[in-house]
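Hi R.,

As promised on Friday, here is the backbone we talked about, encoded as structure tokens. Could you run it through your design pipeline when you get a chance and send me back a sequence?
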């Protein structure tokens, strides 16, 4: 294994309010740098909060970046954007890398690469101050004449455990690669499941361009959060607060995305349609749900999925400019009743989620097997919102009548457990205008009336 430590000595900037102290480093930006090279990023902080930073396990990423030296070089160059107080080191143990970053960090890129050849002897020369132990224990060691880790490492383990405690021995073991149940664990950092952030405008205004300018910072924050999770979002909920309440805005994307340019474009079009009747004071953005991003594989040949992605982006822009109801996604539902077999919603249909919600809503509903449903029976593209009762003569198989039956019947009997049961015989027929129509006879009705339900376009 190969661990990289990015640590810094915490020096808080004093403010007028003693309770408001801000750290010297942007921890989130430092995490983004570390997470770019490995999914295993762990937060480490000393007991007395003197040193803090991130530990990154990069051995599994060597092949992706062209080898260990190439990866370390890229990380070193990316760390140059941070203040000079950032201390970098690497070692084959996490605790060893942490010790080196605290007392013997790399001063140049070549020193950082030379650490690939470090072994346990490089750690033995470190002072005892690298151990994250109590100050009284450190003073006891100095009184005993111990100055380096080598002095402690050569002591008998039983005597060390009896006189100095198990926690000090556990950290010493973890630095040299020995297993110890009490060694400090390195749990991978996981961003929060939901995101919510609010900012106050430096001025109160209802100008859309100024409001949009300050909303860019919140967009950047939510996209950074999505990048940390390696996921995308379909909805961002915005709140524009003024003196008398707040205005709500929901940005929707047809596919999960963490691209800030996509959200900027949707926010720009949505804000252009809004009118604020009072000066906006605060902005808030929420992301309550995120999901894994779809895998996109590049190919020498044209990608068939590229057209789908372009179409989704076009739908997003149309809905942002014209309204949410202008573009809806249609999908089939496992319900034989024609009026309930198609659902329209703002986002693409998720089959598994819909089935779960349906089972919760209709606990007594039988489970349908789609393979047993009739797949060759024609269905009209245009269904009437409400079936239209037929007037005049009853449809027949004879030519010359107002309704000439062509095929059928197809029996649909469903929904006896809920409030909308149906028992119908459906027929394909032709009317006086030679249009192909869809008729049914309602068998639940005492008079068995006939209805026009759709047209085959």
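Update: got your reply. Pasting your designed sequence below so it's all in one thread:
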């Amino acid at each position: 294994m190969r661990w990289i430590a990015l640590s810094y000595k915490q020096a808080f900037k004093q403010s007028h309010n003693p309770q408001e102290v801000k750290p010297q480093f942007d921890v989130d930006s430092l995490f983004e740098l570390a997470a770019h090279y490995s999914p295993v990023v762990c937060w480490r902080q000393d007991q007395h909060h003197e040193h803090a930073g991130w530990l990154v396990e990069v051995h599994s990423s060597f092949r992706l970046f062209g080898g260990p030296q190439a990866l370390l070089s890229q990380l070193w160059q990316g760390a140059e954007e941070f203040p000079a107080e950032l201390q970098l080191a690497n070692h084959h143990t996490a605790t060893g890398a942490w010790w080196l970053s605290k007392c013997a960090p790399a001063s140049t890129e070549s020193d950082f690469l030379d650490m690939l050849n470090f072994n346990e002897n490089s750690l033995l020369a470190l002072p005892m101050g690298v151990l994250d132990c109590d100050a009284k224990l450190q003073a006891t060691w100095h009184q005993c004449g111990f100055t380096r880790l080598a002095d402690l490492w050569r002591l008998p383990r039983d005597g060390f455990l009896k006189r100095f405690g198990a926690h000090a021995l556990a950290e010493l073991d973890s630095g040299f690669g020995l297993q110890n149940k009490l060694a400090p664990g390195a749990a991978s950092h996981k961003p929060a499941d939901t995101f919510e952030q609010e900012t106050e405008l430096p001025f109160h205004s209802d100008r859309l361009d100024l409001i949009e300018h300050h909303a860019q910072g919140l967009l950047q924050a939510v996209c950074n959060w999505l990048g940390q999770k390696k996921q995308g979002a379909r909805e961002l909920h915005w709140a524009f607060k003024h003196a008398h309440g707040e205005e709500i805005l929901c940005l929707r994307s047809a596919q999960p995305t963490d691209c800030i340019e996509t959200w900027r474009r949707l926010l720009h079009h949505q804000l252009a349609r809004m009118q604020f009747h009072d000066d906006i004071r605060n902005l808030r953005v929420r992301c309550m749900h995120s999901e894994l991003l779809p895998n996109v594989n590049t190919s020498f040949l044209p990608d068939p999925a590229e057209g789908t992605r372009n179409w989704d982006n076009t739908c997003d822009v149309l809905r942002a400019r014209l309204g949410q109801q202008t573009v809806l996604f249609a999908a089939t539902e496992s319900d034989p009743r024609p009026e309930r077999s198609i659902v329209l919603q703002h986002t693409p249909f998720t089959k598994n989620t819909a089935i779960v919600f349906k089972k919760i809503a209709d606990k007594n509903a039988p489970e349908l097997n789609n393979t047993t449903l009739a797949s060759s029976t024609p269905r009209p593209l245009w269904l009437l919102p409400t079936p239209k009762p037929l007037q005049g003569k009853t449809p027949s198989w004879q030519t010359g009548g107002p309704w000439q039956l062509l095929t059928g019947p197809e029996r649909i009997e469903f929904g006896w457990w809920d409030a909308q049961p149906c028992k119908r015989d459906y027929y394909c027929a032709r009317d006086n205008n030679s249009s192909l129509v869809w008729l049914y006879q309602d068998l639940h009705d005492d008079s068995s009336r006939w209805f026009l339900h759709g047209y085959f376009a």
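One thing I noticed while checking it: Residues 191 and 229 are 6 Å apart (CA to CA).

Thanks again,
M.
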